[in-house]
Amino acid sequence: MASVWQFFSHEGDYADLNEAAACSRLAQALSIATVDGPTHDETDWAAFDELGEFFRKSFPYVFEAAEVEKVDHSLMLTLHGQDASLDPVMFMGHMDVVPVVPGTEGDWEHGAFSGHMDDAYVWGRGALDMKDQVMGVLEAVEYALRHGWEFRRTLMLCLGQDEETLQSGARSMGGLLARRGVRLHFVVDEGDYLVTDLAHLGAPGRHCMTVGLAEKGYADVRLVARSAGGHSSNPYGGTSLARLAKAIDRVASSPWPAELIEVDRTMLAAIAPYVTEGPLARLVAGGRASIDANAQEIADAFRRDPQLFPLVTTTVAPTMIEGSSRQSNVMPQDMSATINFRILPGTTVAQVEERVRELVDGLGVEVELVADVCNDPSNTSRADGAGFAALREAASRYFVEPGDGSPLPLVPSLQTGATDASMYECVCDGCLRFSPFVADADEVDRGVHGTNERITRRAYMQGIRFFVRLIQQELL
Ligand SMILES: [Zn+2]
Q1: pLDDT, tens digit (0-9, with 9 covering 90-100), for 346-394
Q2: Overall domain count for the chain
Q3: 456 alpha carbon to ligand 1 midpoint, in Å?
Q4: Which GO biological process annotations does it have (predicted)?
Q5: What is the CA(341)–ligand 1 centre distance, in A?
Q6: Ligand 1 centre and the CA of 128: distance in Å?
């Protein structure tokens, strides 16, 4: 039995939402295998076109009212509001899903693309990440239009095609809006699909939901040690493997500074009223002023915590090594290692590369940036803007602490992975990553990009209610 339901409130709202029909549409959307290929040319775009057709058939009010633009295989829908002077709100998402890991197909209780639905769950790849939110948003807009609600503010729905790989769809749509001079009021993209337990931060019995305001950057740096190889009986000067190992060690054991960045500080300020235990209690007791005054002490404490350290520093993970000798008596020839960095906002890919060059200087190792996968950290969206307040207001009705019924706080967070949301930073200072479609932590850990991805029907409907409410609040 899911335990995330204990946080739900007002499930009776919009009583004419048809659960069976909505869940069956989600199941059908999950059965269409919009899987990312390794490249644009190796992707089955017919599946994306099929999904687009399915949207059109399922949401007649939306597609009747919207201006629909296809940007490559991504979809941009504009529902014009009556007051053109108001900046549009955007609900966004991605239509693509990651593949099922080869060899694990049989581990699925119901096939990843079977579109299976039972009394409790809708199953399939994308049930959490993130056809639930894409379909749920469309359900909510369809509901609003079917009830004759007239939008004062324009609503845009931007659905990307390759968030999990190249992000080319969202990049194109963001660029298009920038060239048109559009500014967005705020953007809502997927978040972490969780209700988060705050016990670890010293607030036992309290929970929150997170709103991602920024994303860490990403860099792969390759270290290359060249050698002609030869017989291992004369390894004068060391083998390529020895030089490479020394280089990896220098990079991996030279930590980046720990810093409490702005997102961390707004996060701590949001939870400070609930922190009653542990070392953090004293450091955040006076709210933002204490947090600023104790910033370095908090950052250092986070750095020592296995769960929290990615929030305060650039992380360094050697992940791949290539070129080993096949025989113990033969020296290896050219070898390479790849080191993956997740870069804290405030630092750049160029600075990471520069530092690696300095660290391995003199070891006879070359440094190459794997340029096509690198991204600087995103901007940091506003926690004090209209978007955050709007999410807080809608969420306060639907997600509450089971003990006292108080609304779960919405807490700013730093995302450690990349999403399409950053592609709209050029037209918006409030790109918010938030999912009202939630699951228990073990479901998210196992299901997102893993096996037996599924969402409870009850959580799916609660997410739809949230978006209907948000529309009522912000667009009418
Ligand atoms: Zn996603």
Answers
A1: 999 999 999 999 999 999 999 999 988 899 999 999 999 999 999 999 9
A2: 2
A3: 18
A4: proteolysis
A5: 20
A6: 8
